[in-house]
């Protein structure tokens, strides 16, 4: 398997929705997560436009992966508790790429910013807050 195949298999296993949507992982580091999604008629709304929820799912997946890769040692996982997305352009073909970077890495919450681009064009910008999950006391 190539490194991208290994990363993609990891993200599909960790988040099965990524497999359903056909998301590919290109970078999974604590500093930067990069995932991509290819346009498909099955992921569209009217007029062959990629559904906003699909774009948001890609952003949430990238942000969740970035938070997971930054979890403290005593944490068991992470979950999105707030997400704000500005959809800035339509996608009618091709590939979109989500790049997520941490803005705040706290012990109880993390804030991740994700840009979705189609080539150089900014399609969406998401800021999300992730909670740090721990076992019950």
What would you note in describing this structure?
With 137 residues, this protein is an alpha+beta fold. It has a single domain (3-133), classed as Hotdog Thioesterase (Thiol Ester Dehydrase, Chain A, Roll), CATH 3.10.129.10. The protein contains 3 helices and 6 strands; from the N terminus they run H-H-E-E-H-E-E-E-E. It has helices spanning 3-14, 16-21, 52-68; strands spanning 24-28, 33-38, 77-87, 95-105, 109-118, 121-133. The protein is globular, with a radius of gyration of 15 Å. The chain starts with a helix and ends with a strand. The mean pLDDT is 96.
User: In total, how many beta strands?
Assistant: 6
Name of the CATH superfamily: Hotdog Thioesterase
Separation of the first and last Cα atoms: 41 Å
Number of helices: 3
**How much is the radius of gyration in Å?**
15 Å
Low-confidence stretches: none
Q: For this structure, what is the CATH class? A: Alpha Beta
Task: Identify the strand order in the major beta sheet.
Answer: 1-2-4-5-6-3
Remind me, CATH topology?
A: Thiol Ester Dehydrase, Chain A
Instruction: Write down the domain tally.
Output: 1
CATH architecture designation: Roll
Mean pLDDT: 96
The ordered string of helix (H) and strand (E) elements is HHEEHEEEE
Q: Which range does the strand content fall in?
A: 35-45%
Structural class: alpha+beta
Helix content: 25-40%
Overall shape: it is globular
Oligomer: single chain
């Amino acid at each position: 398997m190539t490194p991208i195949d290994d990363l993609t298999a990891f993200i599909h296993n960790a988040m099965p929705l990524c497999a359903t949507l056909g998301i590919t992982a290109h970078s999974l580091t604590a500093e930067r997560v990069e995932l991509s999604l290819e346009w498909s008629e099955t992921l569209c709304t009217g007029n062959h436009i990629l559904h906003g929820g699909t774009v948001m799912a890609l952003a949430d997946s990238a942000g969740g992966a970035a938070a997971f890769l930054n979890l403290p040692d005593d944490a068991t996982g992470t979950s999105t508790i707030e997400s704000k997305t500005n959809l800035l352009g339509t996608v009618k073909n091709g590939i979109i790429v989500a790049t997520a970077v941490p803005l705040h890495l706290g012990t109880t919450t993390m804030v991740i910013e994700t840009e979705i681009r189609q080539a150089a064009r900014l399609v969406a910008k998401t800021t999300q807050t992730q909670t740090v999950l721990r076992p019950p006391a």
